[in-house]
Each structure stands twice: as structure tokens, then as C-alpha cells.
Amino acid sequence: MAELKCLLWDVDGTLADTERDGHRVAFNMAFEEAGMDRRWSVETYGELLKVTGGKERMQFDIERGGMPAIPFEKIAALHARKTTHYETLIGQGLIPLRPGVLRLLEEAYAAGVTLGVSTTTTPSALDALIEHSLGKEWFNRFAVLAAGDIVPNKKPAPDIYTYAMEQLGVSPENTIALEDSGNGWLSAQAAGLKCVVTINDYTAEQNFDGADLVVSEFGEPDRDAIEVLINKHNLADVHHVTLAHLQAIAEA
Ligand code: XBP
Ligand code: MG
Q1: The whole model's pTM is what?
Q2: Atom of ligand 1 at shortest distance to CA of 82?
Q3: Which of 113, 128, 168, 213 could disulfide-pair with 196, CB 3.0 to 4.6 Å?
Q4: Is residue 1 pLDDT above 80, yes or no?
């Protein structure tokens, strides 16, 4: 029976719905600023999200003929501008945390559970979200912020989860990943982790077979009950996800 010692949080789509109104808008601002015709619609961005990493996403769009071919240095420069625009958008406080995120983080932190971040996103973009949506005190409360190009292979590869666990000295059996996407679930699974998924509009139809718990959101005690799509361990009374549920998943 394994004790829950660590929670590793994905960022985009899990902590907050950053993709449609944050990252997508910032990419389009960078394209416009560079005099490019390309704009990513809400629908097109959904297709592109199957590729994790903003630079990789642009490269993929080029390869499929959506954007004219540009050298990698130009992609990297565009992405740097995109990140600046994203940080400005986040700084405006327009993108709140998803329901139940702060509640669960606070509950786990108070209980002495080690907290970390494992994300594909760029470190400075992550910092902006922590500062403006969570609060600066969380820079000290997360024991590791594993993000972006720090590992060679992005999700669905396990690298970013494996890296975070190495940094923390925790083992997979004591750790649960919190994710929102099929690529995130595959990454967590490949790292040997149990995984709780909160779906969103972009990920609702993706495949989460084998995940431990798949829900519409973490929810709140004083709101309507969340929707439970997969409940592998037959947890009872999942009106909202609690630390006790996560402990039960670790022990299952
Ligand atoms: C998030 C990503 C990121 C963001 C954009 O995936 O794939 O690429 O979309 O961020 P996950 P950057 O939630 O699985 O970590 O442009 O900084 O890459
Ligand atoms: Mg995500």
C-alpha cells in the first residue's frame, strides 16, 4: 500500500484554461506583429494542440502547409515574442484558476504533501501564471517547477515527469499526476504514475483509458457535483475531488 507523498501538476488546461484565450491569442499577436497572414482559430488551435510545445506546434503547422516555411531561428524568435504577449495577457488577470485547484493545492500543502509542476510550457510563462493567478507565495510552495525545454522530449514522452521526480527524490508509486489532456496522461503513464484528469473543451473527446479518475473539474463543495467519466477505483461520493480521494487512489 503506497502513501501519497507527492502531487505533480500539469499547467495548461489543468491549473487554468490557458490555451484558447491565452496561448492561442498570444501566438496570433506574434504572427500579426511579424506581418504574417496566419491566424489560429479556436478550432484550428484544437487540431494543433495534439503537438505539445509552442515551437514544435508552429513547426508542425509549417509542415502541414498552414504557414510558410521559416528557419528555426525565426520560429524561436516568434515564440519568444509570443511568450511576452502571453505574459502580458496573464498579467491582466483574465485567466482564473480552474474550480477546485486552489482548494486542493492548499489542502495538500497543509498536509505536507510535496507539490511540483511538470509542464511543457515555457518557464517564464509558468512564472507569470503562478504570480498572477496563484500568488507569489506559491513559488516557495512548489518544490520543483519542471518546465519547457529542460528535458529533450516533451509530453507524451515521460521525461518531464521523470525529471521532476528525480529532482524531488520521490518514487512513482507515491506520486500522482494531475492532467487535462491525452498527451499529458500518456506522459504520466509512461513515467509510471497514477493520474487524475480534469477534462476541458479541447480534451473532452481524447482517450483516457486506464487513467485512475477522469472528471469534468476538481469542483467545489458549495457548487453542483462534478461529472465523473472514469472512476477506476470506485471511489464513493465524488461530488468534488478531495485530498482524501487522491490518497485513496495512491493506496489502491
Ligand atoms: C502545454 C503545451 C504548451 C502550451 C504553449 O501542454 O503544449 O506548448 O500550449 O506553451 P501541457 P509554450 O499542458 O501538456 O504541458 O508556447 O510555452 O510551449
Ligand atoms: Mg495540459
Answers
A1: 0.97
A2: 16
A3: 213
A4: no
